[in-house]
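User: I'll paste a sequence; please echo it back and then give the predicted structure.

Assistant: Echoing your sequence first, then the prediction.
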Amino acid sequence: MAVGQGVLRAVLDVGALDAVEARLEQHEVARSAAHAGLLRDVLELHRVHTAGGCALATVAQLALLTRSSEFRAGALLADARLLAALPGALEALDCGLLSVEQARLVCSQLGPLDEPVQLAVWDRLQT
């Protein structure tokens, strides 16, 4: 923001601005970590369903549990599976290095690719 350049320093309470900006950043880091936890739980639900022979029920059950559409539930499962397969992706969400929106974008771009290509692109993104 222009405060760093001193342009608005005379009209803004810089201390209050810094405090609220820090809180907003903390909310986003917490949101990313919560999303990583959600994705891990989605994977666990799918594991339990698969072990019981009803893997096809995962999306419908997830939609009920998250009070969302089956479209969103299916996307969550697909994202969870893809991010779990990418080394360090869920951990990057945990610490806020990767935001929820960035994770969604990674999944939308890498999802259609073959696994070796996914891994190569993911590796390239980390460098």
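The two ends are 28 Å apart (CA to CA). The mean pLDDT is 93.
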